Amino acid sequence: MGGIIYLYLYMKYFFIAGEASGDLHGSSLIEELKKLDSTCEIRFFGGDLMRAASGVKPIKHIREMAFMGFWAVLKNLSTILKNMRVCKKAILDFQPDVVVMIDYPGFNLRIAKFVRQKTGIPVYYYISPSVWAWKSHRVKQIKRDVTQMLAIIPFEKEFYASHQYDVKYVGNPSVDSVNEHLDKTEETSYFKKKYFLSDKPIIALLPGSRKQEIAACLPKMIAAARKFPEYQIVISGVNSVHTAFYHEFMDGNSYPVIKHHPYQLIFHADLAVVNSGTATLETALIGTPQVVVYHVMLGRLAYWAKEIVIKTKFISLVNILAEKQVVKELFAHLFTTDNLIDEMTRILRDDQYRNEMIASYKVLRDKLGEPGTARRAATCIYQHKKV
How much is the pTM? Predict the structure, then answer.
């Protein structure tokens, strides 16, 4: 007796993220992709957030991959090479319809080359390496090995076009993150009461997420902020660093360390001192005036080397995206307590200066576009559906 054969087609996606930020962005991407393709099958290199979004364990966890800096990479080279071998085998075994790479260029561009050479699988790259700032030779690799770049910085589209490569700008995930959290904004009085803060206005200190950054930045931040006794100092902490570590740099004082809610802290602060990174852009999108700091070893020498090696005039995402100085950058030897005090004084005492910074933030926000970054990126990836 004859029967009917039903053929169920479903998409298979292989994601590669190698650090905490990639895990976060990858989880949002997976969530949006599953809305478009509920029957999809996913394998990935990533972390706990991607595991929660996908419902499967990572092949390799980011804690086995996130090696930052020259010496850390050199020290863990054998592990990195092993991870690459495992990744290549996993792709060949899984035979995905699409490989999706998230930032992490040192690893991902090598895998992209392998995928092109050994398979016909399209490669989508979400969050471009900063090739416009340094290592511009990577543009050639990207053009050759990446099917579609999904950019999150507006000027990247123009930059790549100048190299005869078309990329899609899908928006910036910081816009989504800030919008989502500010929808839950509390009254300032309630926020202060909740965290046992005084009624004084707040100076927020964001010294970074790694112990080395905190140790280098926090003492100068505190020393400068103490010159404004009419304000209270509140430190933004991260879960991966014990609160006791922050107290090592308080010189016998006991300033509040608030974890879990950096956006709320920034929103309720009159001023933020921010270690350079994504937090500078988030602070701008929230609308809080800020000073950007960045500690590097060998101050003046590093500053001189930056002028030669890095092709951008600025180091903070705010100024890079605005293509002008919106916020003061205290980089290398310029990051001193006295310089920090001078800039904090200007922001807190000069209303015109403060208002000009806030007005520039609004222009930047408009340039980045509307929320929905992960949804737009997922839609682009889903276009490679089976027929």
Answer: 0.85
